[in-house]
UniProtKB/TrEMBL annotation:
Its cofactor is FAD. This is Acyl-CoA dehydrogenase. InterPro entries: Acyl-CoA_dehydrogenase, Acyl-CoA_Oxase/DH_mid-dom, Acyl-CoA_Oxase/DH_mid-dom_sf, AcylCo_DH-like_C, AcylCo_DH/oxidase_C, AcylCoA_DH/ox_N, AcylCoA_DH/ox_N_sf, AcylCoA_DH/oxidase_NM_dom_sf. CDD domains: ACAD. It comes from the Bacteria.
Length: 387
């Protein structure tokens, strides 16, 4: 059986519409917001109002009833217009997926509509200062106190806490049946007494910030636990593939944006006889980027198609590979875009240098390239675990 390697007409229309909407805002708007301490709320709410933010969430909760492939397409097109929204990875894709798959009926009704229309953004907090990549070592604890839970701990690098009403926090709690310590997911209001967030000064040019989070005796009602409190690990894993597919889409979009700007510049800028794009030293690296980006996009679409078809295992390998390929393609594209622009490549006016850090973050978060290589070495190649 032969399949064409093109997306459905519906998906392509979604891409065109999102690109059109985001182009009204554009890169200059985005960087102005970042440099002036502004926010991307207008764009966020507009994509919410148009149904793009919750396109992956079931229709009965205000979503579009689509899949991860759809929300990844939205994320990529926003990035490709120079308006990458990191909170799309977190709010609809991680938190939205986990709640839609494992939340109680009441939780779905309570949280999902706001995630879809953008009025109830949810951040996600798993990373801790001492555990880092080794999330099995997190020490944020949840203790029962009558009908309530009491949370204590520290989180770091948590994106968008200032823009979120709630954070989905991963903590450790004793499993009711066995007494073993297991991860449990809690929806924590950002205005809860004992919850504090401090911004981490970052070199990324983005209005979306990262925070250190301090959780001191935060009291939560029993229904703050998402789904089954004994099934935290399974529920957590449900968010991993969407997270990686979205991170890949985010990088693919940034890579396309860098390449578009570089190509446009290479067509125009003339210093000897013809435009600099006529020199192979400039043209070939850009052509290489085009190939690398298309390969990364194809792998991202494959990962999303497997995930949306319900193949979580198959999607795991593909999502890791897609995230790796996309981050590498984006880093290379940003570097080549800077070089193509010469001195202009490191001016604020052209905004290319800022892409170096933004794309570089894709090699670190949400999962580092080393951990992806560990995964592929172990799971795809059957090599021994190294850590
Ligand atoms: C911009 C940004 C946004 C983020 N947003 C969020 C968020 O919203 N919520 C959240 O919970 N977290 C978030 N994070 C955290 C992110 O997931 C972590 O930074 C990431 O998992 C790496 O952890 P670490 O920074 O502590 O690095 P470390 O764990 O200290 O690792 C340092 C280096 O050592 C390498 N290393 C570690 N162990 C191994 C090993 N076994 N084999 C090979 N190499 C290894 C790593 O790959 C890395 O290169 C964000 C991070 C960034 C940069």
């Amino acid at each position: 059986m032969t399949h064409t390697f093109t997306e459905s007409e519906e998906r392509r229309t979604l891409r065109r519409e999102v690109a059109k909407l985001a182009s009204k805002y554009g890169r200059e708007w985005f960087t102005d917001k970042a440099r002036s301490g502004g926010k991307t709320t207008d764009l966020w709410l507009e994509i919410g109002k148009n149904g793009y933010l919750g396109v992956n969430i079931p229709e009965e909760y205000g979503g579009g009833g689509g899949g991860i492939g759809d929300i990844a397409a939205v994320c990529e097109e926003l990035s490709a217009q120079g308006c990458p929204l990191l909170l799309m990875v977190v709010s609809p894709a991680i938190c939205g997926t986990i709640i839609a798959r494992y939340g109680t009926e009441a939780q779905k009704q309570r949280w999902l509509p706001g995630i879809c229309d953008g009025t109830g953004t949810m951040a996600f907090a798993i990373t801790e200062p001492d555990a880092g990549t080794n999330t099995h070592n997190i020490t944020t604890t949840a203790r029962r106190d009558g009908d309530e839970w009491v949370l204590n701990g520290r989180k770091t690098w948590i994106s968008g806490v200032d823009e979120a009403d709630h954070v989905l926090v991963v903590a450790r709690a004793e499993e009711a049946r066995t007494g073993k310590v297991k991860p449990v997911l809690f929806v924590v209001p950002t205005d809860a007494p004992g919850f504090e967030a401090r911004p981490i000064p970052m070199e990324i040019v983005s209005p979306e910030l990262q925070f250190q989070v301090f959780i001191d005796d935060v009291r939560l009602p029993a229904d703050a636990v998402v789904g089954d409190e004994d099934g935290g690990l399974v529920q957590l894993f449900a968010g991993l593939n969407p997270e990686r597919i979205m991170a890949a889409a985010f990088s693919n979009g940034l890579a396309r944006f860098a390449l578009d700007r570089a190509t446009a510049y290479a067509r125009e800028r003339t210093v000897f006889q013809g435009p600099i794009g006529a020199h192979q030293a400039i043209a070939h690296p850009l052509a290489q980027s085009h190939i690398e980006i298309e390969m990364a996009r194809l792998m991202t679409q494959k990962a999303a198609a497997l995930y949306d078809a319900g193949d979580d295992i198959g999607a795991g390998e593909a999502a890791n590979m897609a995230k790796y390929a996309a981050a590498e393609a984006a880093c290379a594209a940003a570097d080549r875009a800077v070089q193509t622009h010469g001195g202009n490549g490191i001016t604020q006016e052209y905004g290319m240098a800022g892409l170096l850090v933004a794309t570089r973050a894709g090699r670190i978060a949400p999962v580092s390239r080393e951990m992806i290589l560990n995964y592929v070495a172990m799971h795809s190649l059957g090599l021994p675990k190294s850590y």
